[in-house]
Amino acid sequence: MEVTRAGNGPRWSAAATFVVISSALVTCARTDLNPADLETGESREPNTVEDAGAPEPDATTPEPDADVEDADVEDPDVEDPDVLPPEECEPTGAETCNGVDDDCNGTVDDVPPVACPDGGFSYCVRGAMSECPRECQTCMPGSETICFVSYCYFWGVQTCSGDGKSLSGCIEEPPPSACADIARDHQKSRQLEQCCIDEGYCCKDDFDLDHDGDTRDYVGNCSEVLCGGD
Q1: I want to staple 175 with a disulfide (CB 3.0 to 4.6 A). Which of 41, 72, 179, 226 is the partner?
Q2: Are 23 and 30 in contact (CB under 8 A)?
Q3: What are the sequence ranges of the domains in the chain?
Q4: How far is it, in rounded angstroms, from Cα 28 to Cα 192?
Q5: How far apart are CA 119 and CA 136, in angstroms?
Q6: β-pairing, 121-122 with 218-220?
Q7: What is the pLDDT of residues 127-167, one digit of tens each?
Q8: For residues 169 and 142, what is the distance between their CA atoms, to the nearest angstrom?
């Protein structure tokens, strides 16, 4: 079927007219088109966030417990009652044997030993001075004997221990002036040991000057040095 328009206008067929009307109806049915799309004939996909809308919050998700959060946060201005502050040391005078750091030097009872009237020393032990030695075990505590070495001065000193049980090793020292020339000329010798005896010392008998066959004993003035000394 063909429809003609009066005048000189174009001629339209019924099929063409149906297609135009159908396209207009379809275009109007699209509600997601904006005016710009209508002009270009293009369409856009719906925006998943704006068009679809934000998801509803999950009603089953619990709200954070304010009391629990506050309990985990420590206040820096609040002191821990279980932590005690360090005690400040206030000097009260010279150090004494009393179990207290009197002079605040970081050491308790750092007092020197006290010489006893009959020999030996009394020591500070647990805040109290120990008793003086009642008997001589090997030597009088703090006393000295003379020994001999094979180098330099050839003369030395041994010191009795604080408990009176032993003598120290031989510590080299210059000899007294009366024995200096002998030490230089004869070094460690019978002559030097004899000079030690003559000067009133308690001397190691390295050369057996008492002729008893024992070179480990002592000779000379040893009564105030060794226990049972002559």
Answers
A1: 179
A2: no
A3: 10-40, 144-220
A4: 136
A5: 9
A6: unpaired
A7: 888 877 666 678 888 889 999 999 999 999 999 987 788 89
A8: 14
